[in-house]
Amino acid sequence: MQHILVIEDQADIGSLVQTALEENDAFRVSCASTGDDALPQLDDAPPDLVILDILMPGMHGLELAAHACARGIPLVLMTGEPTMVTMLQNLACPHLQKPFGLEQLSAAVCTALDDADENTRAIRAVLERLLASADASAELLQRVRAIMEQAHG
Question: Helices (DSSP H) in the chain: which residue ranges?
Fold first, then answer.
């Protein structure tokens, strides 16, 4: 049984994703509502896949994505932010554009699990592109850069 960790600050979306995935007996799903709650789970019991909202209070989703990526955990990023959606599409990064349907959720999960190595490369490309972007906050960039350097070191 594959373990999927859903990290979403909106309880209704997190619950919907969990319920939909648990209908498939192949998945065990756990949820976290913040990056700070999820981070220990990445270390203590690494999931087979993380479904992650990008814009969350506290630890930014991209910072958490860097942590998961450094551990080789495949990701599906979720966002409704149009600029971020465009970038994820251009980089062929596994993502769900909010609002999304259950068929899209299922397809994204299956693709991410089947292509875990490509998934990790795509997420790294997103993070590296953001590091080069002048639009991102300096503090977030500094944290993501440190995580990426640690992963490569």
Answer: 11-22, 35-44, 61-70, 82-90, 102-114, 116-132, 138-152
